[in-house]
Amino acid sequence: MAKLLVLFFILIFFISCIFTEEDCRKHKDFYRKYEANIVLEKLPELDFDRYKLYGKEPGVNKDTIQELPARWFGQLNYFWAVGDTIVKKKGEVIIYIHKKVPKFDTTEFTCELTCDRYIINNMPKGYWNDKLRKLGLRP
């Protein structure tokens, strides 16, 4: 009987973890409201649940501080650098990093939010984690 009860609770736990289509839509809608367009003058700073980005607005050269959610933007912490342009268009679920100096043989990184993972330059985040570990970095 005890084994049956444990199995029941495990089943309930897994059922509660299922990410429904509605959950996915809400998840993406939360991130769609953010926008950023900034040339970084210093590295982004983590401020509890979001990153503060310090720099200039492209085209107008005006000082600005912008914010992006930490959980998503934090996936890109090994890809940004001072001088890079960060773009997140309102209504989209893609963050663009335009590199001033190429990294990993590219000058642009895109991070797309899907329902179950992050896709960076058309590769799952796990691919990049493996690549970073091989370089001795801790993703």
Shape: globular
Provide the low-confidence segments as ranges.
Answer: none
Number of strands: 9
Helix segment count?
A: 4
Strand content: 35-45%
Which class do the helix and strand fractions yield?
alpha+beta
Short descriptors:
139 residues, alpha+beta, nine-stranded antiparallel beta sheet, 4 helices, 37% strand
Short note summarizing the structure:
This protein has 139 residues and is an alpha+beta fold. The protein has helices spanning 2-16, 21-32, 70-73, 125-134, and strands spanning 36-40, 45-47, 50-57, 62-69, 85-88, 94-103, 106-113, 118-120, 123-124. The model has no long low-confidence stretch (mean pLDDT 86).
Tell me about this structure.
- This protein has helices spanning 2-16, 21-32, 70-73, 125-134; strands at residues 36-40, 45-47, 50-57, 62-69, 85-88, 94-103, 106-113, 118-120, 123-124.
- It has 139 residues and is an alpha+beta fold.
Which SSEs are present, and which pair or pack?
Elements: H1 2-16, H2 21-32, E1 36-40, E2 45-47, E3 50-57, E4 62-69, H3 70-73, E5 85-88, E6 94-103, E7 106-113, E8 118-120, E9 123-124, H4 125-134
Antiparallel strand pairs: 1-3, 1-5, 2-3, 3-4, 5-6, 6-7, 7-8, 8-9
